[in-house]
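Many introductory courses stop at the sequence. We go one step further.
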Amino acid sequence: MTSSLIALLATTVEALPEEAASAVTQAAASADFSLLDLVLKASIPVQLIMALLVLASVTSWIIIFRKWKVIRRARNEADHFEERFWSGAELSKLYAGTTERGRGVGGLEAIFEAGFREFNRIRQRRGVDARAQLEGAQRAMRATGSRELDGLEHNLELLANIGSTSPYIGLVGTVFGIMVTMHSLISTTKQVGIADVAPGISEALLATAMGLFVAIPAVWAYNRFATGVERLSVRYDAFSEEFSSILQRQSHLDEG
């Protein structure tokens, strides 16, 4: 047995014939593909679906960056205004500073400005009781708060639609890719192997992957922004209630 092992080790390994080596090299080259090649060689329906997914991805990222800036600015403005509001400043001076800045106010500052303006307007009327003053201010604050929240929620519905429909659009591309591949292979008379099926299946699965890549950030961003808007809504409602209490005390002092 030992002599057999020695003889086996002593044998030289012969190189592959030139034709066999060429076949192996061609097989390796055919297995080497890129995503760009899959997109360019895909069928027309699949390419259209991929283009739609790219457009949806660009749109979602534009919404994500813009909405991130808007919600962050609204949160920072709410923090700054609450700090000034609860610092003990007089309401009339705070209102004058809000109206004299020569810029559009938003968030809590807009709610305060609308409520105090309506409160002063009704208070200047004769024969109007404190309850009417307070109800007028509350209506103005609710209307302004609704407009502010509507601005914060702008395009969130589109972001949610992109996140929920992109995987299904990708699946449609997968179905079309497999259908086109199967029909093209059935029409041929030669024997079909895995190398013939692989490109079509790859482009079909690429459409599904693109749908997921579009949907995942859109869904994550929508959930995050929706939570941020909900928290701002709670802050707006809480401030309106607290400011209503202050105005109620102010109206009773005026009557007294």
